[in-house]
Amino acid sequence: PLAGLAARSQAEARPLEAAPRAIISFAETLTPAAAGVIGRAFRAPIANYYSCWEVPQIAQSCPDVPHVLHVNAERVIVRVVRADGKDAAPGESGRVVVTDLANLVMPFINYATGDQAVAGEPCSCGRGLPTLARIEGRASEVIRTPDGREISGVALGQFLAFVAGIIPYVREYQAVQAALDAVSLRVVPTPRFDDAFRVTLERELGRFLGPDMTVTVEPVTEILLEPSGKRLIIKPLAPPTAALAGR
User: Fold this and answer.
1) DSSP letters of 108-154?
2) What pLDDT, in 10s, does the model give residues 208-225?
């Protein structure tokens, strides 16, 4: 929603009279594309805050190296765990597993939050806290391809924004994987969207997902979201789970 508001304010040439001191992003994965739009529109640094209902205040972005998330090690132990159960090395993706050091009523020990993240290296800022390189979204929010790859919502968003170049043509998008070999990309188009771009987008997304995946682009007037506002990748054949929204 912040990125949508920022993009519209820029498109309508309605800049803020005064810039805020900072913007705090939470509850939804902050993609590089969204961060860029928000930063340009509001002319303010963005603090990315990572938390969950069960274990709050897990991590936040470094003031000096904004793409790095510092773990609040005084209140939580965070592990990024690979599929084989071993801790991920820096740069590897895995499940987020946390131990809450502050909850004296209901302990959470090695609790899998359902999130996916990338393990980080020591931050160059020198603070010494454990780090996460990035949050990739919910474990359920991936497109699984017939060749065994998993495409996270963040990876999909980076491809659509920086490779396919959808920002001038699409206001909102949502991927629907109804079968292992079929993905439909719902898009709310801008006035610049036309059939030629739809064909190009289908071709490029098909290359990205692989030759065994059937890809269709479906222009719609509106994308209905869950009450939480988070639906980026949905799978009608899977059990309902929380997901992320992309704009």
Assistant:
1) -SSEEEEEEEEE-PPPTT-----EEEEEEEETT-EEEPTTS-EEEHH
2) 999 999 999 999 998 886
Q: Kindly give the interhelix angle for 2-11 and 32-42, rounded to the nearest 10 degrees.
A: 50
Q: Cβ(176)–Cβ(184) under 8 Å?
A: yes
Give CA torsion, residues 164, 165, 168, 170, to 10 deg: 30
Helix (H, G, I), strand (E, B) or coil at 40: helix
Return the amino acid letter for 63.
P
- b (16+ CB within 10 A) / e for 63-91: eeeeebbbbbeeebebbbbeeeeeebeee
**Residue 224: partners with Cβ closer than 8 Å, 6 or more residues away:** none
Q: What is the pLDDT of residues 116-142, one digit of tens each?
A: 899 999 999 999 999 999 988 776 667
64-112 per-position pLDDT tens digit = 998 899 999 999 999 999 989 899 999 999 999 999 999 989 889 999 9
Greatest pairwise CA separation for the chain in angstroms: 59
Q: Are 26 and 50 spatial neighbours (Cβ–Cβ below 8 Å)? A: yes
